[in-house]
Amino acid sequence: MSCDICPFNCKGAKETPYGLCNVIKLEEKTGLTFLNYGLVEYGLSCPEKLGFFHFYPGHETLYIVTSGCNLKCFLCREYSLVFGNLKRTLKYAKKLLPQDIINLAHKVNATNIIFSCNSILNYEFLMQVIRLAIKENIGVGIITHGVFNTRKIRSIIELADAFLVRFFGFSERSYSKLTILPTGYRYAKIFSEEAYRHHKLLEISYTLVPSINDDPNEISSFLEWISCHFGYNIPIHFRRFYPKYFLSHRTPTRTRELKRAWKEAKERGFRYVYIDDVFEGVERNTYCSEDGELLIMRIGEFIKVMNLEGKKCVRCGKEIPLVRKAKSNYHDTTLRYKFIVDGNTTSNST
């Protein structure tokens, strides 16, 4: 008995029936059992705070964070949740069924649901939520590291609305220093190409880690791959590394290095390039690629959509890659969170 969701292809055994991700149980009699029907964290946010800039900009988002992961990134900012003891977590976490997620989205008036980086591992649960969301006209976006067997999870790619694929470098050298799978970036490439082939909104991010994956040649190769396979309309994000987990002793990425990568992408002709971790400026805003009109302004957590009619610039009619509804044109800076961790339910407003 083996699992075929990701390239590790874990095999079940009496001594260790759980896969590397700690989410899937493998047994000869029952096959694959998905354990993670209890959610570690969920709350109300906005797509920009989670990493999407072209998926329902300015709208309320219900975000879902689940436990377990197959890539075990050494820089994971959610490691206390993602790599925690699953049995212990699920013992106290509230069990939510797929319909409960949809009901919660309606309750908080969220137009979309965004799942965290590892959520595809919860394959059956995710598929049920997506099918229900389609019936209720709720958008579904998925953030992912892309390290999966695309044949197995193709149905998710076909049904979800948008994908944000996170890269932690573009070489075996970088991935060997940041994850447990040196070839992980190759799977992320395949995943991105599959999502693009199915005409999904695709955004791609690159986390710059000083002295590991910030070599100009590596970034150049990354940008060359994007231009060759997707053209110049793909939204690209350069993200700051923050010292966490096994890399808590390292320094965060300097803004000037992020701007250097941003500038190279713009000089190559990419139309929608962003730095996620700056407060404001041209590196966070969205402009019309035809006439330079400001279309989406982002200042901190304030987002204002302007000069857009549907997906088109009102001045020149140029269409940009976007998933949105005309329901609202800005996002309130007040974010409400609800956490379920170790049996304690707490609320927080910022």
Topology at a glance:
Elements: E1 24-27, E2 31-34, E3 41-45, H1 47-50, E4 61-65, H2 79-82, H3 86-92, H4 98-107, E5 112-115, H5 123-135, E6 139-144, H6 150-159, E7 162-167, H7 172-178, H8 184-197, E8 201-208, H9 216-230, E9 236-240, H10 255-268, E10 273-275, E11 286-287, E12 294-299, E13 302-305, E14 308-309, E15 312-313, E16 330-331, E17 336-341, E18 344-349
Parallel strand pairs: 4-5, 5-6, 6-7, 7-8, 8-9, 9-10
Antiparallel strand pairs: 1-2, 3-4, 3-17, 11-12, 12-13, 13-16, 14-15, 17-18
Features:
10-stranded mixed β-sheet, 350 residues, disordered C terminus, 10 helices, 28% helix, alpha/beta, TIM Barrel, 23% strand
- Low-confidence runs: 327-350
CATH level-two architecture: Alpha-Beta Barrel
Largest sheet: 10 strands, mixed
Taken from the alpha-carbon principal axes, the silhouette is globular
